[in-house]
Design a protein that fits this description.
- By secondary structure, this protein is mainly beta.
- It has one domain: hypothetical protein yedk fold.
- The strands form two sheets. Strands 3, 4, 5, 6, 9, 10 and 11 form a seven-stranded mixed β-sheet that branches. It has a five-stranded antiparallel β-sheet with strand order 2-1-7-8-12, with no helix packed on it.
- The radius of gyration is 17 Å and the shape is globular.
């Protein structure tokens, strides 16, 4: 799953990775991004508009859903294209969520130890996401997850769907709406590029937000 992530790279670095200009205000570094907050994403507000760096609420609830409907922060790759709750957004409202890494917890001697997962080359990660207009009229999103691969399997059975460089443009292409076409053209990042290490228990508290949260520690 993906329930906490990190984004500290600046807009210039993200623009270079995406190979598109993102002329937006500077981003404040965030080292403990939690659900139920505004997160940065790249999307097209409508099919004819340019890509923009925007803020989405991390919690997905379509405008047609009632107040008791769930607000998932993740959507699985196995069901996102067929679930009535997600399939409209999968076809027409896809987005990319930039990140430097994410946190997962592994059970260790009766407790949960947080680990930080990131790219070995420290390049940005681009999580596949979907977004929708919420009942309050504001945009909300969910990050797609897939079965964990590579060393990520050591920590958790699932991981965010991080896309490779060649998949970023087709994922954001408004003309691609067919599930099988998207599946052929969009691919996840090579799992060999992912590494991880244990970090401080302070990350368990969403109010904690500083660079020390991603520093490796010695496991007891």
């Amino acid at each position: 799953m993906c329930g906490r992530f990190v984004l500290y790279l600046d807009v210039r670095s993200l623009s270079a990775s995406l190979k598109l200009p993102l002329a937006e205000p500077p981003l404040a570094p965030r080292y403990n991004v939690a659900p139920g907050t505004w997160i940065t994403a790249v999307l097209r507000p409508d099919p004819d508009s340019q890509l923009t760096l925007d803020e989405l609420w991390w919690g997905y609830r379509p405008h047609w859903a009632d107040d008791k409907a769930p607000q998932p922060i993740n959507a699985t790759v196995e069901k996102v294209a067929t679930s009535n709750y997600f399939k409209g957004a999968f076809a027409h409202h896809r987005c990319l969520v930039p990140a430097d890494g994410w946190f997962e917890w592994v059970r260790l001697e009766g407790r949960k130890q947080p680990h930080y997962l990131t790219r070995t080359d420290r390049e940005p990660l681009w999580f596949a996401g979907i977004w929708t207009e919420r009942p309050d009229g504001k945009p909300g999103c969910a990050i797609l997850t897939e079965p964990a691969r590579g060393v990520a399997k050591e920590i958790h059975p699932r991981m965010p769907l991080a896309l490779d460089a060649e998949s970023l443009e087709p994922w954001l292409d408004p003309d691609l709406t067919d599930r099988e076409t998207i599946r052929r053209m969009v691919h996840h990042l090579n799992a060999a590029l992912i590494t991880h290490w244990p970090v401080s228990q302070r990350v368990n508290k969403p109010m904690e937000d500083d660079v020390d949260l991603i520093e490796p520690i010695n496991e007891p």
